[in-house]
Design a protein that fits this description.
CATH topology of the largest domain: D-amino Acid Aminotransferase, Chain A, domain 1
Number of domains: 4
Distance between the termini: 41 Å
Number of strands: 19
Helix content: 25-40%
CATH architecture of the largest domain: 2-Layer Sandwich
Shape: globular
Structural class: alpha+beta
Bound molecules: adenosine monophosphate, glycine
Largest sheet: 8 strands, antiparallel
Strand content: 25-35%
């Protein structure tokens, strides 16, 4: 089979790493890929949002399967375009991708099907929004409706802060059209967890749980990032909690899909806040998470290409998805200044000195004349799969200092 992965992050490197292990695959492409994907696949210089370019490449190369990493092409409708041409592609269609592409759409879906989530109101007018802030208590959360490169969510402690954020989005068009509408919602205090699921026409099959670290500094301080550390499984997921998630969330999502005639196929990432053992949905993503994928792929024992194929054909069953009992932890080495402002192009050294047991996924790197250079805010995901979380932690932290580049930074408390 010829397979193409779309995207260029650590998630895509982890997907390529896993796909390359499949006996079924004899040619793997990654568009546009990064330094890491070039070690297991052939990078193709087409951007992830260049749908026509990707389609053209897939047709010319008789691609048997395309796997979409990031949300942008999904929200743009890449799946519909590929399917129109008779090409097999793994991911939800444009209509279903609105669950990530529009916070308002996702929230109204949750309300309609009684899926527990923070109470919210949506606004398109700055004046209306400001006048009705008194219906919320502080802190509250303001979210731009559309895709904003992970920067669309603000937690506001005071009315003044909230008014400023509303002004930036609704009046000054900080996010352009993506901020034409905002969702204002109640702040939930609890523990976050990610549950990714394979979705077919017949069922929603949850993967193993993962815990993502979002804040840049230790003890969860500082600004939000895309995720700078992660481990799986998360001990939060007791049998009791999983039952609740199944009954109150997954079953209702499934019922909602059927009722709305949303033919969702692909990955649904349910971002959860667990408040005193009660799960609430913070957000839906319609794709694999990053860095969740970096800790899930090493634990997955099944052939992932098989899972993709069966998902597309809606023949996937629970027993097809097999997991190792081991614990996987990843720590992301980032560039100084990330997530606000950072430079790229510094040489990375030390990757060859890591223990053989370390799995190194590249987030933002590129090879230039044989040298590995930084090429993003998140640079490398140093990953270990061990019998316990503590062993994985030990393995990573006894290796990570071997990696060096100008301004390298990582959190020391991942998995603690
Ligand atoms: P989202 O993109 O909606 O997941 O928001 C990004 C991050 O903001 C989440 O991962 C949470 O850390 C935080 N967040 C979002 N919504 C809420 C909420 N209602 N209460 C508390 N934190 C939230
Ligand atoms: N780790 C969060 C995300 O992928 O959106």
């Amino acid at each position: 089979m010829k397979v193409m992965v779309i995207g260029s992050g650590g998630r895509e490197h982890a997907l390529c790493w896993k796909i390359a292990q499949s006996q079924k695959v004899n040619k793997l492409y990654c568009a546009p890929g990064n330094g890491g994907t070039s070690l297991v696949a052939e990078n193709v210089d087409i951007k992830a949002n260049d749908i026509d370019g990707l389609l053209d490449f897939a047709i010319k190369n008789a691609m048997d399967l395309t796997v979409v990493g990031p949300e942008e092409p999904l929200v743009m409708g890449i799946v519909d375009k590929f399917e129109d041409k008779g090409l097999r592609i793994f991911g939800p269609n444009r209509s279903c991708a609105r669950l990530e592409g529009s916070k308002e759409f996702a929230k109204s879906f949750m309300n309609k099907y009684d899926i527990p989530t923070a109470k919210y109101k949506s606004f398109s007018s700055y004046q209306d929004a400001v006048e009705r802030l008194d219906e919320f208590s502080f802190p509250l959360v303001i979210k731009a409706d559309g895709l904003c490169l992970g920067k669309g969510v603000s937690i506001c402690g005071t009315e003044e802060e909230a008014t400023n954020v509303l002004k930036e989005i609704l009046r000054d068009n900080k996010f352009g059209k993506e901020g034409d509408t905002v969702v204002v919602e109640e702040f939930l205090e609890g523990i976050e967890a990610s549950l990714l699921c394979f979705v077919t026409e017949d069922r929603i099959i949850p993967m193993e749980s993962a815990k993502d670290y979002k804040k840049i500094y230790e003890n969860d301080l500082g600004p939000n990032t895309g995720g700078i550390g992660c481990f799986s499984p998360s001990p939060l997921f007791t049998e009791k909690l999983m039952k609740k998630i199944q009954n109150e969330i997954l079953d209702r999502i499934y019922y909602g899909f059927k009722s709305e005639k949303l033919n969702f196929k692909g990955i649904l990432y349910v971002g959860l806040m667990v408040v005193y053992n009660d799960p609430y949905v913070l957000e839906f993503n319609v794709r694999f998470g990053d860095p969740e994928t970096e800790v899930l792929m090493p634990r997955l024992e099944s052939d992932i290409v098989d899972l993709f194929q069966k998902s597309i054909d809606s023949t996937l069953d629970y027993s097809d998805v097999k997991w190792s009992d081991k614990h996987c932890l990843t720590v992301v080495a980032t560039s100084r200044g990330y997530p606000i402002d950072y430079k790229k192009g510094y040489e990375i050294t030390g990757c060859e000195d890591l223990d053989r047991n370390i799995i190194l996924f590249h987030n933002g790197t590129k090879y230039d004349n044989g040298k590995l250079l930084t090429n993003g805010g998140r640079v490398l995901s140093i990953t270990a799969l061990e019998d316990s979380l503590q062993e994985a932690r030990k393995r990573i932290y006894s290796n990570i200092d071997k990696i060096n580049f100008d301004g390298v930074y990582y959190r020391k408390d991942i998995g603690k």
